[in-house]
Amino acid sequence: MLHQNPTPPPAEAMKPLPRIIFGSRWLQVPLYLGLIVAQCVYVFLFLKELVHLVTHATEFGEQQIMLVVLGLIDVVMISNLLIMVIVGGYETFVSRLKLHGHPDQPEWLSHVNASVLKIKLAMAIIGISSIHLLRTFIEAGNIGNTGRVTNYTETGVILQTVIHVVFIFSAMGIAWVDKITLPAGKGH
Question: Are 86 and 39 a contacting pair, CB within 8 Å?
Answer without folding.
Answer: yes
